[in-house]
Amino acid sequence: IATRVGIAAAGAMHSAGFHTTGIAGHLGCAVAAGSLYRLGERAMWMAQGLGGSTAYRWQSSSKCWYSALG
User: Fold this and answer.
1) b/e map of 13-30 (b: 16 or more CB within 10 Å)?
2) Which partner from 6, 38, 66, 67 sits 20 to 30 angstroms from 19, CA to CA?
3) d(CA 26, CA 55)
4) DSSP-derived secondary structure letter, 18
């Protein structure tokens, strides 16, 4: 899943200032964990939403942190 997200992004995440691995990795982990827990379709959608939200929040906060350093 993470690889597919990265390929589908085709550089759009980098253009927006985000790292593809950070975002795709969160989504991939959410799907992997959901699969291990045998989540239903709705719960899997929710897990992906949480993965995307935490990836965005983490990436945004790290940008603030790095801009304060430099």
Assistant:
1) beeeebebeebbbbbbbb
2) 38
3) 6
4) -
**In the chain, alpha helices (H):** 2-9, 12-15, 20-36, 41-69
The token pair that represents 49 in the structure block? 């939403």
The rounded distance, in Å, linking the Cα atoms of 35 and 20 is 22
CB 6 within 8 A of CB 20: yes
How high is the pLDDT of residue 62?
56
pLDDT band at 26 (very low <50, low <70, confident <90, very high): confident
| pLDDT value of residue 23 | 84
- Dihedral over Cα of 21, 41, 50, 31: its sign: negative
Within 10 angstroms of residue 5's Cβ, the number of other Cβ atoms is 19
- Distance CA(70)–CA(66), nearest Å, equals 6
